[in-house]
What we know:
With 233 residues, this protein is α+β, with helices and mostly antiparallel strands. 52% of the residues lie in helices and 17% in strands. It has helices spanning 14-23, 29-33, 37-53, 62-66, 120-128, 145-161, 165-181, 186-194, 199-221, 224-232, and strands spanning 58-61, 77-82, 94-98, 102-107, 110-116, 130-135, 138-143. The strands form two sheets. Strands 1-2-5-4-3 form a five-stranded mixed beta sheet. A two-stranded antiparallel sheet has the order 6-7. It is globular and about 50 Å long.
Amino acid sequence: MLYNCYMNSQPVDISQTIVYGVAFDPKNGERLKTMDLNELYASVGRLFDLLEERKVDYVLVGDIAMLAYVEGRNTQDIDLIVSPHDLDRLPELVIEDRNQDFARAWLGDLRVDLLFAKRNLFRYVANRCTTKKTFVGREVPCSTAEGLLIMKLLALPSLYRQGRFEIVEVYERDIAVLVRYGLQDTDRHLSQLSKQMLESDYLEVTGILQEIEQRISRSSGRFEQDRLTGEQA
C-alpha cells in the first residue's frame, strides 16, 4: 500500500470511500447480493445529518480520519468518539454489540463503531486532539494526527496478543505516516497514553515508536550523497 504523507489536496468524499471499500472487498460477495449501494451511500450523509440535527458532540477517528492525512486506502465503516449518553438521541442506530468502552452499530448497511468518551484517553482525544477537517459536503470534527497516533499505539498491545499481525502491520505503517506528517507536542500526548496502559506495554509501544522514528531517519539519509554529487556535476 502506497502512502502520501501530506494532507490530501482535495476533500475526501466519505460516502464514496465507504461504498468503494464495501464494493471492492472480495469478502463481501454474498453481502453485496442483497445490498443497495445507493442506500449505503445515502446512509453516510444521513448519519452526519442526524449527529448535527440532534446536536450530538462527536469526533471522527479511525480510517476515515486518517484520510485527512494520507491518500490511498479503503475502509468500510465510520469510527466516532461520542458520549454513551448521546446514543439515546440516535434511536436510528441499531446496536449490535456494546461494552463499557465501545459499541458497534448499524445505520442500514453502514457500520458505525462508537468509542465512548467516558474512557479517559478517548475523552482526552475529544477534548485536546480535535480539529475541523473539510470533507466533501461538510466540515467535520476530526482527530488531529497526534490523536490518531496515540489511539493506534493504544491498540497495539491487544492486537499483538491476539496475533492479528496483518492489522499490526497496517497500524505500524499508519504510525510511520503520522510521524512523517510532522507531529506536535508528542511527549505531552504520550504522557496521557502512559496513564492508560500497563507500564510494560507502554515501554513496548514507545519502543516501537522509537524504532519507526529511527527507520524514517535512516531512510531520509539514503542516497543523499549521490543526490548531492549529481547536483554538483
